[in-house]
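Re: the request from the purification team.
They wanted to know what the chain is likely to look like in 3D before they choose a buffer screen. I agreed to run a prediction and write the result into the notebook, where they can find it.
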Amino acid sequence: MTPVTGIRRNGGTVEVRTVAGCLNAGQVVLAIPPALATASIDFHGALEPELARLAEATPVWMGGLVKVVATHRTTFWRAAGLAGTAISWTGPLREIHDMSGPDGSPAALFGFAPAAGPGFATAVTAQLAQLFGQEAAQPEALHVHDWSSERWTSPPGAQHLTDYGLFGHPLYQRPALAGRLHWASTETATSHAGHVEGALVAGEQAARAVLAAHIAQRAGARPAAGLGRSW
């Protein structure tokens, strides 16, 4: 896996530059957030100005979030008749879900929170205890992953991008670079944007567009009737 540093048209192909060298492709799929693409890849001014501005302004779904997983010995909340799911504005975790196995093993609760600060772990366990009982205050392990600090997930300033109405914008449904560059991240999906399902929708659309372009190219390369090669 090699980071891409530059993308631009090169005649009938797209030139993709990486730290390891240069590649040429007929079609390119970008499966990263648009804001990350414009922040980390040099498009040499090839993107339409309106598209470039849109990409720079589109929020990154996980850009300013922390994911927390609390593992426990048992699914005690199920025994208490609780679903393990909550929406909360009184603690660091804004949404919480039961991510245990079908039979309750491993037993785990997970949630999303804004970027972590001092005392974050203590605040999380206190919130879980308030919602699910005192057993939740002492997880076997508390795993915290700050996506806002991931270089290949969140560009600088991503936490200030808040116009989620830009998700699935019509410009993302139209291939760029003369039909050779396709968007395939969850932020560009026309449905379920910001979720795994959205990423699948965007990926499937990009795949269909690439296949259609490939079929059209092959059809255009076929000799016209009566102009075939003579033997």
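For the purification team: The chain has two domains: 4-61+154-220, 65-149.
Please add any questions underneath this entry.
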